[in-house]
Amino acid sequence: MFDFKVVTSWIDDLLRVQAGIPEFWTLAIEFVLVGVAILAAYAVLALVLIYVERKVCAFFQCRIGPNRVGKWGWLQTVADMIKILLKEIIHINKSDKFLFLVAPFFVIMGSILAFAAIPFGKGLHAIDFNIGIFYLLAVSSLGIIGILLAGWSSNNKYTLIGAMRSGAQLVSYELSAALALLTVVALSGSMQLSVIVEKQATVWNVFHGFAAIPACIAFVIYLIAGHAETNRGPFDLPEAESELTAGYHTEYSGITFGFYYLAEYMNMFIVAAIATTVFLGGWMPLHIPGWEAFNHVMDYIPSVVWFFGKAAMCVFFALWVRWTFPRLRIDQLLKFEWKILMPISLVNLLLMAFCIILF
Amino acid sequence: MNESFLIVAIITALFLVVAALVLAKLIAPRSTNPQKGEPYECGIPTRGNSWLPFKVGYYLFAILFLMFDVETVFLFPWAIVMRSLGTSGLITVSFFILILVLGLAYAWKKGALEWK
Fold first, then answer.
1. Rounded distance, CA A352 to CA A38, Å?
2. Nearest-CA residue of chain A relative to B109?
3. What tens digit of pLDDT does each residue of B48-85 get?
4. Above 70 in pLDDT, residue A241?
5. Is the dihedral angle over the CA atoms A206, A212, A213, A218 positive or is it negative?
6. A236 and A268: one domain?
7. Smaller CB count within 10 Å for chain B: N or C?
8. Are residues A13 and A109 in the same domain?
């Protein structure tokens, strides 16, 4: 299988040895390259996701969707991005100007920091901490601060209600997500994302012998909690348009609104990518023990294709859920988390511990 | 190396927001109008202040969240060394989880989880 370390070490060698650039400048150039790569991947994926969402939604509702700009409307999101840059940024009277401006920084920061830690393929990740899962949980909480600040600083009652709902929902579902990821940390014995992926070389975590039962339960819990954390699907009540106008970002206009839009779609991808990495084997190909020829053929498919294929399945599932279930009420939402999901995830963690220690 | 890439990611995020804001400032139109600065809210003129005391129910959930979030932080180290600690570790942690579940049961009984 192709290892992306070859590319990075080739660039490093090219700069350091062949061009003879001093140590400091080599590092500087490499850092700029990594930053540009993160930015490009982030922007392109967001544009693709918005297009896919609109097209898939249209098919779910028996419409055609965007079809005017470019063939099959594939340039529609690019046109939208240019349009959103050309819109005026309106400053609201009596709003808290500083917090109003700072809020989008937190939202984008949370999603880019999480995005940079995802292993997209063999040797293709920017940040690989030994506390990877912990880091992901920590940075994904940054978005909540941005949402609360946005709702509070707008000087608008509806945004405040939206932000409060969002805060309660996000912190509640964070617990189930953390406990679901904890079961996999117990199974892998490591929090480093690359190690978790390597351990799934023979079998993915959701097919892992006796541990498959708690792992599958954790996968389902993580998907539910992930949908809730991205304010999507049946859990989109922070921006319930029929009661709260647009929720916490009502007063944002132009590109400042665009940041929230961008971060929402990228968070959907990040949840899908974490679910892929942790439960579905990340970039590891599908291996069935005993089927040597089959395993060998699967190894020829590049790791990036495996990763994005699995992540795309999870994203499609998120869209499917969104257009299938009606929106919940806030009391139903919190009751579901604290009285059903949370006890199940605690019991599931102990079940996983039993499976690991006994078998 | 990882730490420096973390800083690179932070700078990238800051750059994205600042660059987009500067670009929008340069190419977006601007016009002033006293009506424009009014909060949109739901379309009709707003009444009174928006920064009001808020429903306490949200605060209760935030407090409960703090308790259980710290719990998950304590469980992470155990999860990593679960295999080597074996049965004794499992019994100890079960006791720890039991105490927290009692806390949840108390909050449940007191009605903190009800939305009133």
1. 35
2. A339
3. 777 777 777 788 888 888 888 888 888 888 888 888 88
4. no
5. negative
6. yes
7. C
8. no
Do A90 and A84 contact (CB within 8 A), yes or no? no
The ipTM is 0.86
Does A167 contact B at CB distance below 8 Å? yes
CA distance A158 to A105: 22
B91 touches chain A (CB under 8 A): no
| B-chain residues near A178 (CB < 8 A) | 69, 72
Q: What is the CATH number of domain B2-110?
A: 1.20.58.1610
Chain B, window 19-58: residues with a beta carbon less than 8 angstroms from a chain A beta carbon: 20-21, 23-25, 27-31, 36-42, 46, 50-52, 54-55, 57-58
pLDDT per residue as tens digits for the range A175-229: 899 999 988 888 888 888 888 888 887 788 777 777 788 888 999 999 999 888 8
Q: What is the pLDDT of residues A304-338, one digit of tens each?
A: 888 899 999 999 998 888 888 888 888 888 888 88
CA proximity to A34, closest of B63, B6, B29, B94? B6
Q: Are residues A117 and A51 in the same domain?
A: no
Among A166, A332, A334, pick the best mutation site for testing chain B contact (most B Cβ within 10 A).
A334
Q: Does B92 touch chain A (CB under 8 A)?
A: no
Has residue B46 got a pLDDT over 80? no
Residue A338 in contact with residue B106, Cβ under 8 Å? Answer: no
Tell me the C-alpha to C-alpha distance, in Å, between residue A199 and each of A89, A294, A299, B94.
49, 20, 16, 27
Residue B2 and residue A128: Cβ atoms within 8 Å?
yes
Of A67, A86, A105, the residue at which a domain comes to its end is A86
